[in-house]
Amino acid sequence: MARTVRIAVLGVGSVGQVIHLPILNRLSDVEVVGLVDPQREKAQTIAERFGVPRVAGSLDELAAETDLEAVLVCSPNHAHEEGVLGALEHGCHVLCERPLTTSSDSAARVVEAARRAQRHLMVAMNQRFRYDLRAIKHFVASGERRAGRAAGGDVTRNCRVGGF
After folding, report:
1. Of 5, 27, 85, 146, which one has the fewest beta carbons inside 10 Å?
2. Distance (Å) of CA 119 to CA 110, 150, 153
């Protein structure tokens, strides 16, 4: 039987509510142990909807109440650095919604902090898991010369630079 990962979600805006929490609730090896948001009343409503047992106004507060292994950062972009660094300080692995941070200096700080903490830090770039893009990556890596044409040019038209 798989081990259960205890995770907190930092930020209960639309991305957390519409995308992440429904998916996390379907995973048998994930337990969402708390939601963190400065808007506690809103967070409480979302927690009740998804069966999450705890709500906190800060990650420090939640970490004092329960053991965490990972944090999903879904806060506003300008707060990503603070959220990632806080999660790393609590010894958690981190999945951060894109963008990782709002500047290259900030990104360098969080990457270095993850390295020092010996924790995984990943940006939630959902395009990397699309089957069609994974197939194209395989074609390109294997030296297939016509991989771009095989996709009908659709990949370059619909994906931003660095999007996968």
Report:
1. 146
2. 11, 38, 38
